[in-house]
Amino acid sequence: MADSKLKLPFIDKKATEETHTDVKIHTKVKTQREYERVSDAVDFIRVIEKHGDRVAYTYFDKKRNLCDVTYAELTEKIKRTAAGLASLGLKESRVAIIGETSVDWVASYVAVLANGGVVIPMDKELDLHEIEGFLDGVDAEAIIYSSLFNGKFNETKANHPSLKRFIAIAPDDAELENEKTVALSDMLERGDKELEKGFTLPERNDRERLAELLFTSGTTGTSKRVMLSQKNIFSVVTSAAATVDFKPDDTIVSVLPIHHTYELACMLAGLDYGMHICINDSLTKVLKNFQIFKPTGLVLVPLFVNTIYKKIWTEAKKTKRDKKLKLGIGVSRTMMSVGVDKRRELFADVINSFGGRLEKIICGGAALNPKMIEFFESLGVSIYEGFGITECAPLTCVTPYYARKYGSVGPAVPCCQVRIADHETPVADYSEGEIQVKGDNVMLGYYEDEKANAKAFTDDGWFRTGDIGYKDKDGYVFITGRLKTVIVLENGKNVFPEEIEEYLSNVEEIAECVVVGRETETEKVALFAIIFPDLTKFPENTPSEEIKAKIDESIALINKALPSYKQIKHTELRDTEFEKTTSRKIKRHLVK
Q1: At what angle do helices 71-87 and 184-196 cross, to 10 degrees?
Q2: Residue 10 has what pLDDT?
Q3: How high is the pLDDT of residue 220?
Q4: Which residues neighbour 169 within 8 Å (Cβ) at sequence distance 6 or greater?
Q5: Most buried residue, 64, 112, 152, 292, by CB count within 10 Å?
Q6: Alpha-carbon distance 170 to 168, whole Å?
């Protein structure tokens, strides 16, 4: 692996060659991708069936025994599920799925698509009334649910205006007393009979029609309902397989919520490869599970990466090996600069804490501090960033494994184009503006919401992501903020809080932070940093005043390096973590 440098702009400057600053590039040998292109769900089933007796999934049963499912068994389950749904009159119906990650969840998802139906993945953390409201709003006809929801849908079964069938993955006896309820096992038996009668999946699906409905974050009143086609879904699966540094012999652990498009797209790409996917059953046991599953790769959001980073340093300090770790990182970087790679030997203890085989992490869903990439690279674990949004199924950009630029989410993936636009007009490289996307991954639109659709697309048909950034001369995209979070100061300057938060994330005493604009006695809009401190960095019972003083010292140093209008003027500590979505993003709208 080699390092090189490229001149790039400081993010708040207009494009001139003189304003460029150094950004590191890590290069690797480009290798052949081992996957097949897939066009729709039926095609996807055909491809994964070829993997035969390879293990597709490993998971824990209720007694925490490990269970394996081969690709042949997975394919058979998908076909049985599709036939079973057809036997219940749900062949081309709108079917919701809710519950924790499982083989049954994935098989149900693919089966609904293969049947030509509309699949509706649901967040299992939602309030029951929200679930009912969401499903009523899209006329869902059936729901497949895990044992987490046994007993919770009793009133729903009696009163819901659109749901007619309730398919329980692991029902108890009471669950089956309702006539609208069928056990998944019984439905699969019905599917067997249909297959014996000659049931077959269609040769092709209509790739352009509605195939999936997703809900953006928000309540039933504010959430948008995203419509995806099979072209959207599987163009992303193929693009992910074409651009990510995974191979059939890799093992990954599924950690993120399965209903989230990012996790699901990566999982489907993994199945296309023929990879071994292990299902994590508990966030509290995730590090223990890494020891069991021994992953070579992970798909994570920045919060998980930051948590792992802090655990590494906490453990190093606890065992008085932090100085040795710092020294090792320096030695590692020096050796790498002359082409000698001894990282996995130098940091064997750290790598072994993740099972001993971890080589790469795919990170998306939010901005990642480039410092994390540098740190993990020093240990021998490569992090590859991507950029996506639900409305793009979700992938738009991925940093190439063979030429990563730190701080960039990479160029557009093969199924789309990305441009930087300012007031709907594409501008030159290095100029900051809204990131806009056009391609096979872009949604059909928002369900029954013409007003939102009009706002979502430009006059020439590009989707407005609402994210702000710039693109360099090589087409690499750099994200600097979001339109919806921008803070407009009295002098007309725009401040993107995400940029300031990235600086603050380098302060080791800060666990989490959100930057907001507030009115004060002297300023109409002043920058406040709302901080949840990392209490492990302080002696027990340290007074909050001392904690704040220490953090303020670090922020004062950061302010010296920032333009005056971007400087944090006020700090405020909080006692608890910020409320987060199930994909571990801070709910910014709740922070005032």
Answers
A1: 90
A2: 33
A3: 54
A4: 99, 102, 104, 105, 144, 145, 146, 147, 184
A5: 112
A6: 6
- Is the CB of residue 122 less than 8 Å from the CB of residue 131? yes
- State pTM to two decimals: 0.85
By DSSP bridging, strand 165-168 and strand 181-183 are parallel
Token duo for residue 505:
């994330």
CB 208 within 8 A of CB 232: no
CB 398, CB 262: distance < 8 Å: no
3-state secondary structure of 256: coil
Alpha carbon distance 188, 207 (integer Å): 26
Tokens representing 393 are 């199924």
Other C-beta atoms within 10 Å of 411: how many?
A: 22
- Using alpha carbons, select from 388, 437, 395, 446 the residue that is nearest to residue 223: 446
Cis peptide bond prior to 394, omega within 30° of 0: yes
Closest CA to 263 of 250, 280, 248, 249: 280
Burial of 159 by CB count in 10 Å (0-12 exposed, 13-18 middle, 19+ buried)? exposed
Tokens of residue 213, six digits? 């409905």
- In this prediction, residue 428 carries a pLDDT of 52
Q: Residue 144 and residue 124: Cα distance in Å, rounded? A: 12
Q: Using CB atoms within 10 Å of the CB of residue 545, give its burial: 0 to 12 exposed, 13 to 18 middle, 19+ buried.
A: exposed
Q: Judge whether 381 and 358 are in contact, CB under 8 Å.
A: yes
pLDDT one-digit tens code per residue, 353-410: 999 999 999 998 877 888 899 999 999 999 999 999 999 999 999 999 999 998 899 9
The sheet carrying 210-215 orders its strands as 181-183, 165-168, 142-145, 94-98, 118-122, 210-215, 225-229, 445-446
Q: Which residue has the tokens 């309902």?
A: 225
3-state SS class at 423:
coil
Within 10 Å of residue 209's Cβ, how many Cβ atoms? 14
Q: Could you tell me the end-to-end alpha-carbon distance of the chain, in angstroms, rounded to an integer?
A: 45
Residue indicated by tokens 């299902």: 279
Per-residue model confidence (pLDDT) at position 218: 58
**Cα separation, 379 vs 326, whole angstroms:** 11
**Could you read off the pLDDT of 208-218 as tens digits, one per residue?**
999 999 998 65
Cβ atoms 295, 357 nearer than 8 A:
yes
Are 527 and 487 contacting, i.e. CB atoms less than 8 angstroms apart?
A: yes
User: Could you say which residues of the chain have pLDDT below 50?
Assistant: 1-21, 423-427
Two tokens, residue 458: 């430009």
Q: What number of H helices and E strands is found in the chain?
A: 17, 29
Q: How far apart are CA 518 and CA 527, in angstroms?
A: 7
For the stretch 233-267, pLDDT in tens is: 999 999 999 999 999 999 999 999 999 999 999 99
pLDDT of residue 484: 78
Amino acid at 587: K
